Amino acid sequence: MGNSYAGQLRTTRFEEVLHNSIEASLRSNTIVPRPVFSQLYLETEQPLAHDGRADNDDEDDEDGSQSNSPPKPYQLKPPPEGCCTTDGFCQAGKDLRLSSLASNPLDVPTGFMLVGVRSPSLPENLLVCAVDRRFLPDERGHNALLGFSGNCLGCGEKGFRYFTEFSNHINLKLSTQPKKQKYLKYHLYRNNQGVLVKGAPILWRGHEGRIKQMGSSPSEGHVTSDEQLPNVALTHPSHTHGSYTAGSHVDPVSLPQQAEVPHPITNGSHVVPPTAQPAVNQSGPGRPSATGIHANAGPPKKRHKGWSPESSANSVPESSGKNPPSSSTLSTLSVPFLITNGGRSETAATLSSSQASSTPLSPQWPSVTIPDQLLHTCRRQPVIFKGHGSLPQLAGNVSEVLISSLLHQCYLSSQTLPRVYQHYGPSPIQPLSTEMQILLTVYYLVQLGSDQVPLIEDLEQIFMRSWRESHLSEIRQYQQPQAAATQGRHYGIEVPSNLPGLAQHLSLPPQSQPLTPSQLPWLAQLAASSCGEGVVVLGEQIGSLAQGIQQTFNRLMEGSLENTNYVVIIVTAPGQETQSCVIVTGKHQCRALAESMYSPSDGLKEINHQLSTGIAQELIHYCNSLGQDGDLDSLLDNVTVGSSEPSPLSSGQEHTEERSLKTTHSPNDLQTLSSKDSPSPKERASSPKYTCSEYSIEWREVRPIQLAVARKLLSHVCAIADSSTQNLDLGSFDRISFLILVPPSEVTFQQTVLHLWSSGVLRGLDQECVSQREAERYVVKMDHGAQERIDTLIREAHSNSYTLYILVHDHAHWDVTSDSCRTSDGALGLVDRLLNSRQVKDAPNIVILHVTSFPFALQTQYTRISPYNEIHWPSTFSNDVDLYHERTRYYGVSELLDSTRSGSSLPLMRYDSSFENMTSALEERFPKLHSAVIRTTVLIQHYCIALMAASGRISSSHNLHKHTSVETLEIMQSLLTAAQHCPSHHGHMVVLRIPSVALAAWAHRRLSRVRRQLGLEESFEIILGNPHQSLSIGQSFTDQIKTWLKIHDADWVPQTYLELEALSCILILSGAEPLGESLPRSLKYCDLRVISCSYLQRTTIEQELGLAAYLVRAESRPPHDPGPGSDLLESDADKLSSTDNEEEEGQENGDSPLSSRKQLQSCTENGALDSLLTQSTSSVNVQKRTMDLKQFPSQSQTHPPHSSQSTPYVQPALHHQTHSQAQTSSQGQPIAPLPPHPQIQSQNQLISQVNSCPPPQVVPPSQSRRQHSKSTSSGSLSPTSSSPHLNCSWARGVSRPPSVLLPRALYDIITGTDSSGLPRCTSFLPHISVSWASSFRPLLSKMMTCTEQSLYYRQWTVPCSSHMDSSNRTEGRSDNFHPRRLLLSGPPQVGKTGAYLHFLGILSRMLIRLMEVDIYDEDDINHNSQVDDRQYHPPTASWPNPDVMRTMPFDYTIHDPKYDDISSVYNPAYKPIAEVNPVRQEDVYLRRRTTRIKLSKYAAYNTYHHCEQCHQYLGFNPRYQMYESTLHAFTFTHLLIGEEVQLYFIIPKSKEHYFSFSQPGGQLESMRLPLTSDWSPDCIKSPIFTPTTGRHEHGLFNLYHAMDGASHLHILVVKEYEMAVYKKYWPNHIMLVLPTVFNGAGIGAAHFLIKELSYHNLELERTRRLEGGGPAGDVWPFIILADDSCVMWNTVDLDAHSGPVEHAVSLKQVLQHMEACPDLAMYGLCGIRKWSSRGLRGNKHRDSFSRGHLHDFLLLNVDLSQNVQYDQNRFTCHDVDFVLRLHSAGLLVCRFNSFSVMKKQIAIGGYRTFIIKTKMTDVPTSVGPSQYVCAPDSKHLFLATPAQLLLEKYLQHTSQKLFPLSTKNYTHPALSVDCYLNLGPEVTVCFVSSRPHSINISTTGLLFSGLLLCFADSFVTPGFLKKFSFLKGATLCVISADRSSLRQTVGRLELEEEWRFRLSDEFQTANAKEDQPLFFLTGKHI
Predict the structure, then answer these.
(1) What are the angstrom distances between the C-alpha of 948 and each of 639, 939, 1085, 1817?
(2) Is 162 exposed, middle or buried (CB count within 10 Å of its CB: 0-12, 13-18, 19+)?
(3) Could you give the dihedral angle defined by the CA atoms of residues 1464, 1465, 1468 and 1469, in that order, rounded to the nearest 10 degrees?
(4) Which of 123, 55, 459 lies closest to 267 in space, CA to CA?
(5) Which residue, 1168, 1151, 1139, is CA-closest to 1242?
């Protein structure tokens, strides 16, 4: 095949397999996993063929020079006849020589480069060609696509796709196979004279790395790399790795280069070594080499027909079988990881006990002797990972070696198949083989960088991916029949699209080719060879594990493993099982693993031990020394502070105390020491002329989102009460009590008490609680005193059954320890004993609410919390829309991560490379010290030196800035200057997190001493945050806080960190973990540089980051995306520097390089201290702008923090260049980071100038304003640029989150992402007390909601034996949930405390108001100025007299307040009262007045009401199965509809007796109606129809109590699409389902069908009665039309002594009274008035009965009103229109004023809810009323809304333009014929009927201002219209269904005689033609 055969195996069968596999791979275009051996074979040849040659590049060696078979000679294709064959010319005869084309203009297309081609026949000259740069390597020798694309610059021919073809065209005349790597030699460029000259050589090999042979024979093909070359693959910013599809061609040059995140793998039983993540176009069949030089090599031999750069992404890559990249080449795992697994963390015990059961594997090596002085000699403590087989017995100095079984457990778990696969079919699915596990382990270790530590969970995922893909077909075959059983996308066995640790293009072998033990050692050595000495495999020469371990120890002692991180020992003796182990020998890895094997408590004990024994003193002395710059303590001793007082302690005592790390002080001593450190308060300057006006405290306020979460909590409690399980009966409680449990932190305790007292919850619960101290009895710390408090609550709960007790368990993830595993101090395990006790669980009136930011520990397979009882904090923003109008934006972990990726400004989260470099060096120098001791010591020394440097008290000649980091110097500089710029001395907080209490105490003493010696006691406070102690600060600072908070209590002291708002201070926060302490908004820096990186659980990492969580004002731009001139850019002007790299220049004064505007602000805000720095930087920036960025492409395009460096500390300057990508100028334009340049002033020189400056001075306010006016942005929070608070650091700081400094290791973990795009930490074990249920789990998905994450953890995690839920597994029951237990989870510092406190308040109010509802309480509108005092009926009349009623005038005026926004109906007897303050139309609905009324015993209820009496009514009838009902069709014909109407009845079995059927269970014939003569005291004769929509939960359909138990027929009228949901909630109610065509109809259609159906049913019943022999006319003709919000009914008691009094009555009494009216059949419509609290007082002369409009609750005579129908098309005012037409037809309308109905306010659903939306989208769109109509045949935005609704809304909102003369003109109304339409509240409508013999008002002498003809029928004639007179210019509006009928109406009514029309006056509703628009024509009266 023309390739070298080096590396092939010699067996015939193996050779045959190889060739078959290769051929299949090359011919296949499908994504099929290819056999590993084809890759091994193919990958062997290329590095040897290309890079195994001699160093002479010009030597024309043959491809097969090192082959075992002779090479085939290259056959040169003969040139075409007649073409030119001259050397140096192309076949077209054009000259290509460089000497000839040097001065010629050349056409070079975009994306192409000029390249010099070496011709063998012209060695002295080069040929010029243009080559696509994508197919050329970059300046580091990487990222070249396979193949070729070039143009001939002689003849201009383009598009050569093969280098062979191109070489023939340019006449290279080669005797060997043409290779672009051999002949494309040099870049060409034009010099200053414009002449084309030879440039740099093309780096095809990258740093001239060479491949050397290793092993016993060349055929084994072991290769390694002399050098480790960084290789950063290209990634597409909008795609995840491996997601490129065919056709998605991406230019790799244009893409930003960045470090790789962990990559996916493709594993199987046989997986090849991983390679670097390929470039975008190299995702296809690539062959990366060992060194990364050929990381972008293409298909196996050459590009075949089926391959192209564009399509390669869709092909299956062929990875290198031999040559995985070096650790620095790979950046797949660019973060340090630890092999630790939470619940499996081990104790670093000595080895003697663990070896007792070990047996020697070989008689030659019965045991292994650990050499003496191993730790001293090699300065590391090796860690042995047990693999397969038993470890040999260790002897000697066993304490210097650690043993871990984590790898062994990983192997076991990955070989334990899930139960579902154990008995799978005839071809069982097998686990990974031992050999495959070992080989994958080697591959994994090979890819780890020198500073990376392996993570067991990554290895597990690699195993699982390999297993899944090796059995892909079987798993899919299994999953197909099981698909229905899965419950969500996270429950199935998924193959993750990406995995950390390995490259994604590894392929799978077929099952027929198992990896044999004999092949394992050389394959492992082959893989390890690629990383040089990083991983050493001992296999072929090793006979036993003992021999390998002993050899490893010997080599360690010899120093030959100095650069080796891992030694893998493999024993494959014939006839024995394969054995293995891994010995970790890297210094960094050994330290990290050793510390991770401690439990968190043991780690702190080890730190305390090292401090107490004094072994850290050498480190202290070492750090105190500043080399040539002197000693730190001596410099301090020489400081003279003029105003300082002598220290209370003697100098000797002071030095002894400060230089010692021994923990000799008790906690009380620390408090006294703090008071000693601060001298007596000094008299500050007189009160400033200006005070800071921006200072405000917002943590006392309840935010909208907290209210929303509180309501969600309340709804969940109500859901528990509403469930059928009867676990909580809210109706039985009349009050609540609560107890809040918090962790044993004094600050958290006081903080919760403060929130509780400020919330006002206690004012409604406990009237006796009158002070904050008394509120402490509602909060309890979970310590020894908690037991008594819980016992007291349990006793109270048993004795007070009517009180609901809420136990709030705050910070619930803190203690999940089982009571059986309680610690010796008794702190842990208390929650289990108290909250999970049987007394608490069984108490029916105790509800437990767990509150936590990290709920994962409570979401296991054995959890006690139902997933339905979880409440997750909602997102406040959706698509950048503030959903809750918070005006604040939360910044948590994800936002911090976003800032690291934005690249537009300094990231909020970063690491300090200078600090990391120093600690790494000291960790190697002091191998026995714990890293926490070293890091803390270094950090405190940095702070001390930075404080000394920033104070200006130390001479600049000492160069202190060289001994601290720029980040620390910036923090101290900002802290010192912040308070000086504010008139009120507001500053900010710096949090220094030190988990060890002992180390924190030492740090506090050390910093306090330095502060005191520098005389800065009054500048800032240093606070020791000990969770077990109260807060203690100096008196002067307390007085300052009291002034700010306006507290006058002399004894007040701050007790929480929140009360330190705006205080300049350093808070040293100690404790093993944060315990829920909230930090103030003045927090500016959160220094987490010394937190532990050993315990990689999600909870541990996220709760540390949660300290920096922050709420910023939403008005300000996000910190990672500042706009031009935004306040964010300027808010950091008081920073000394924005980077931590000493080699990075020009960025010392802020978030960006300084412009002149920025410099001015820096001078203003930083004072004199920054002035020189600014000046010195200006010249730097000028130089930076003039530099050519192209000279530094590698530094400006790469991303080093994520690539492993072979020398760890070579490039500290690249830190911020990469993780912040680019700094921004003050105009928001990115400035590319530049490499070090000798002409640029170094940062050290700049800082030395700073330190030589005089101390900072406070800028006078006037000067400050003058200078600030130029630099203040429009986005600043200040109202004006001249206000004094512009200099306030606090005022600027509240608009941006704090900066977070992390350890480098943790930073890389957090910023790395897994395959789903989630941060790496999310895939870690969620909590230390849980473990994974199986290794066969999928990864978390980025698209998972909080609920889905909960379900994921509930399936895939199990509690450890020490977990309190481990015992919560009852046999035979998997859902052992506690019914009254809830979980509230939300991110840290987001406001959960305020939410649950508000929940307690609203729960209390709910219990009080559970029997109360909001009732509309509104006065009647349109009062008549001329009151009619006549009394038509005596006050004691029970029923109306028909004759008297006919004499009463009909009141046309509408009085119902809900119609405040409609047109009034003209009434001659009505004289309107002028409104003093007219109400805006849009405010009508919002201002409707309600009042709280307690429900009477006769109230109607919604679906949330449950009581024992209602059970049978709601369907709990033992005679019938619940939900048992039948669907019946009912058809009738109606003329107006024009076709048969088919309705459906849903009739429960229990209600079938109300209907008649053709036979039992047969066709529905009619609804039974009683006779008029029938009467029963327990029966209502009239059927009740309730039309409803959107109120299946909230509609008041439960009439059981309202009817007082009376029998009644109640029918819900619902739309078809809502049928199912109404049936679900009301299974025992009869449903009348409207036809499909009425789904979009309004209330008019519902009432129309109800009325017409009722009349049709009346006729059927009369027929049925006649057939039965009864009288036909005696059937009861009345029905009731009731609104779904009628809740209670009242009657007027006239016998009361104090006048008329209303009291509640049952609906039964109201209806029976009305039905008993003697002459009821003479009335067409009856009703009752709407209740108002002022109804009786407001109208003393009201008659008992009246004629007028009726609403909401109607008794309709369907017989008399047969000829008057509801308008089926109406959406609004249909009842007004119906009553007017009913009255004009001569029917009596009567209102019973002695009864009233109360209407409940229901904000959800109803027929008044309309959405106007366009046809283009279903999303509600803001469309103005003017767009509801348009000109016919015009291009207009059509609306998906019924035409009638558009017309009604248009007339309502635009009538002022349509009827201008009618506006506010009551005496000249608009005439409306035969219908009433709402023309808006300012237009009066006069209704007349055109029907013969109709009753109309007298219009004699009345001039109308308009005429409205809506669907005028034949009764409207020209003669009828001529009866009315109109004003000149009056408006006519004619409405018809189509344009033709519109014209016919105009002609038929002869309207053109008196009205003038224009063509432009014709309109239609904005409906499409298929939606049948309505048309109308307007005109003016002549």
Answers:
(1) 10, 14, 19, 65
(2) middle
(3) -70
(4) 459
(5) 1139
1416 vs 1800: CA distance, rounded Å: 6
Q: How many secondary structure helices (H) and strands (E) does the chain include? A: 52, 58
Pairing of β 1723-1730 and β 1788-1799: parallel
For 1389-1431, write each residue's pLDDT tens digit.
Answer: 999 999 999 999 999 988 887 778 899 998 888 877 666 667 8
pLDDT at 475: 64
Strand 579-584: give its sheet, edge to edge.
402-404, 383-386, 579-584, 566-571, 535-538
Of 57-61, 201-205, 692-696, 1275-1279, the poorest mean pLDDT is in 1275-1279
Give me 457's structure tokens: 């969970």
Least confident among 528-537, 909-918, 953-962, 1267-1276: 1267-1276
Q: If residue 1977 lies in a helix (H) or strand (E), which one and from where to where? A: strand 1975-1981
Q: What is the pLDDT of residue 1917?
A: 93
Query: For residues 986 and 1040, is the Cβ–Cβ distance under 8 A?
Result: no
Q: Any idea what DSSP says for residue 513?
A: S
CA distance 1603 to 1325: 59
The dihedral region occupied by 726, where left means phi > 0, alpha psi between -120 and 50, and beta the remainder, is left
- Using CA atoms, how far residue 1224 sits from 906, 997, 1294, in Å, is 8, 40, 21
Give the pair of three-digit tokens for residue 125: 């000259």
User: Residue 881 corresponds to which tokens in the numbers above?
Assistant: 């829309």
C-alpha 1219 chain-centroid distance? 22
Global pTM value: 0.56
Give Cβ neighbours of residue 594 (< 8 Å, ≥ 6 apart).
348, 381, 383, 402
The DSSP call for residue 1344 is -
Q: Quick: pLDDT tens for 1227-1269.
A: 333 333 333 333 333 333 333 333 333 333 333 333 333 333 3
Distance of CA 730 to the CA centre of its chain: 34
What does the alpha-carbon distance between residue 95 and residue 129 come to, in Å, rounded to a whole number?
11
Dihedral angle at the C-alpha atoms of 998, 1002, 1008, 1009, nearest 10 degrees? 150
Average pLDDT estimate for 1767-1776: 94
pLDDT band at 271 (very low <50, low <70, confident <90, very high): very low
What confidence category does residue 316 fall into, taking pLDDT thresholds of 50, 70 and 90?
Answer: very low
Rounded to the nearest 10 degrees, what angle do helices 1156-1166 and 966-978 cross at? 60
Residue 1392 Cα to chain centre, angstroms: 17
Strand 735-742 versus strand 579-584 pairing type: unpaired
The sign of the torsion formed by the CA atoms of 609, 614, 615, 617 equals: positive
Average pLDDT of the residues of the chain: 75
State what percent of residues in the chain have pLDDT above 90.
34
Tell the residue number behind the tokens 């992390």, with chain if given.
1302
Rounded Cα gap, residues 283 and 505, in angstroms: 8
Is the Cβ–Cβ distance between 1891 and 1916 less than 8 Å? Answer: no
Phi, psi angles (nearest 5°) of residue 158: -120, 165
**Sign of dihedral through CA atoms 1865, 1866, 1869, 1874?**
positive
With a CB cutoff of 8 Å and minimum separation 6, the contacts of 1234 are 1145, 1146, 1184, 1187, 1189, 1192, 1195, 1196, 1240
> How far apart (Å, rounded) are the C-alpha atoms in residues 1355 and 1332?
9
847-879 as b/e, with b when 16 or more CB fall inside 10 Å?
bbbbbbbbbbbbbbbbbbbbeebbbbbeebeee
In a 13 Å sphere around the CA of 1408, the CA atoms on its Cβ side amount to 11
Q: What pLDDT, on the 0 to 100 scale, is given for residue 670? A: 37
Alpha-carbon distance 1048 to 1425, whole Å? 59
pLDDT band, residue 272 (cuts 50/70/90): very low
